[in-house]
Amino acid sequence: MFVQRTLRQAIKAHSAISSSSSSSSATYSAKLLFSRFYSAASATAPLDASKLEIKASKNSKSLQENSQLVFGKTFTDNMLTVEWEAGKGWGTPVIKEYGKLQLDPSAVVFHYAFECFEGMKAYKDKDGKTRLFRPDMNMKRFNRSANRIALPSFEGEELTKLISEFLKVDDRWIPKGRGYSLYLRPTMIGTQESLGVGASNKAMIFVIASPVGPYFPSGFNAVNLLATSENVRAWPGGTGDAKVGGNYAPCIRPQLDANKEGYQQNLWLFGEDHQVTEVGTMNCFVFWKNEQGETELATPQLDGSILPGVTRDSILALARQWGEFKVSERKFTMKDIVKADKEGRIIEMFGAGTACIVCPIKKIHYDGLDINVPLDPSDKTSQAGKLTKRINDAIMDIQYGDVEGPKGWSVVVKAAGAAPNAGEMGGEKARDLAARAAPDATTEAYEKGSLEGGDANEGDDDDDSDGDDMGVEFVEDAGEDDTEEDADDDAEDAEEGEDDRAGKEGNGGTGGTANS
Ligand SMILES: Cc1ncc(COP(=O)(O)O)c(C=O)c1O
């Protein structure tokens, strides 16, 4: 009775606030309130990091030399898993030895692509501390992606805590040195064993990690793009703004075709007017003099078909903070690019994403025409424009903790040991297990701690510049560089020995599409 009444009150409050208020934070609070009552009413267990069990691997695989790292080929000793069931909620999170999943062949992930994932990195700073970059944004996007395919929502902050614990256990795998990082792949799949097409009543989150090197191991290498309109990556109302696996496989055939013609990536167009949308699996930026003669950094607006990249958002925020030129999220078409090229107004173009940060563009093939995009006119040998390089350095400085950066961007995962609320597994036991799993970790690494530099949900009010708020709480019990695999060979053919772009040199390279 009480729950029903309070739930009704929460719904009323939510509707009142969301219809009258112009404040996104008020709307967000109402949604959160609603979701909490909803959770209470449905009485399912939330994702809870304090339930973590650490059953770390007793076998320490040997580490690879930094120079030998190939994107997404080597994985750490352990993985994180947690299962969900409709009516019950989230189960016990476990850190256990990296290994194969056992799933029934009828599991819905195999048939209807119930899969979403994230791509994020952990960095070692010069003091040996581990840092995450804006994990709250990855968690929100992960939740939005899950919601889009009717998979369960979860508390982002709790998953960030769990990932932090995972990082402590596999600390020795985080490569040191600027440009090196541990790539994290949080993934959610629907595991219901049924061929019925409907919401999955079972799901699993797993997180695996792979040490990676710089995307451009020997300096930038600008890419050639094939502007593609006959195949479309995404469309308004589709799933382009969600990081669901189903978006990626259909892009590989067009990418292979582009590779065969000597282009590393597709420039994805949309609509009769050939709007520019994304580059491979990166967001697309153009720096130019616009038709009004203003110097402008422009990227397509988030219209539902563009993935709201963490890097994209960070670039926009930094460029706005610099205040030196106009910064726009708006539509632009190939006609605009061709005209700007003819009038000599393009200054630089680049793709942006976690794997590379920025990827300079040097040529676009469109409609039988080659558009040569300037790099750095003051340095003929340079493979990246001045702004592209500046953005890269600014973001890297923050990721590696060399520069403070906006609040909550660089989140330090404190030294290994259980999180303050790591329940039964806290204290001695967790430290012992972590010590066994991470023999190389320093004594300092066993200090107790969890996150500093911002609560994972803290930024909710201010970092939704993509205009997309949580929007994921209402689906409880509703019952995320990029298939970085082996397009290597074709990509290499496409390179025609011309450069040593990532994926070819193999360090940070994704081997397939440019980013992840
Ligand atoms: C399609 C697509 N666009 C853009 C991005 C860049 O996003 P982020 O900056 O969060 O890595 C990615 C990678 O996640 C992507 O897969």
Write the layout of secondary structure elements.
Layout lengths: L1 H19 L3 H19 L10 E3 L22 E8 L3 E2 L3 E4 L10 H5 L2 E3 L2 E5 L5 E4 L1 H14 L7 H14 L11 E10 L11 E11 L10 E6 L23 H9 L4 E6 L4 E5 L2 E8 L5 E5 L10 H13 L3 E4 L4 H9 L3 E8 L3 E10 L2 E4 L13 H14 L10 E4 L13 H11 L13 E2 L35 H8 L21
Parallel strand pairs: 1-4, 10-11, 10-17, 14-15
Antiparallel strand pairs: 2-3, 2-4, 2-9, 5-8, 6-7, 6-8, 7-19, 8-9, 11-12, 12-13, 13-14, 13-16, 16-17, 17-18, 19-20
The structure holds pyridoxal-5'-phosphate.
Pfam families: Aminotran_4
Catalytic activity: L-leucine + 2-oxoglutarate = 4-methyl-2-oxopentanoate + L-glutamate; L-isoleucine + 2-oxoglutarate = (S)-3-methyl-2-oxopentanoate + L-glutamate; L-valine + 2-oxoglutarate = 3-methyl-2-oxobutanoate + L-glutamate
Protein name: Branched-chain-amino-acid aminotransferase
Q: Care to give the gist of this entry?
A:
The chain has 516 residues and is of the alpha+beta class. The protein has helices spanning 2-20, 24-42, 108-112, 135-148, 156-169, 252-260, 310-322, 334-342, 386-399, 427-437, 488-495, and strands spanning 53-55, 78-85, 89-90, 94-97, 115-117, 120-124, 130-133, 181-190, 202-212, 223-228, 265-270, 275-279, 282-289, 295-299, 326-329, 346-353, 357-366, 369-372, 410-413, 451-452.
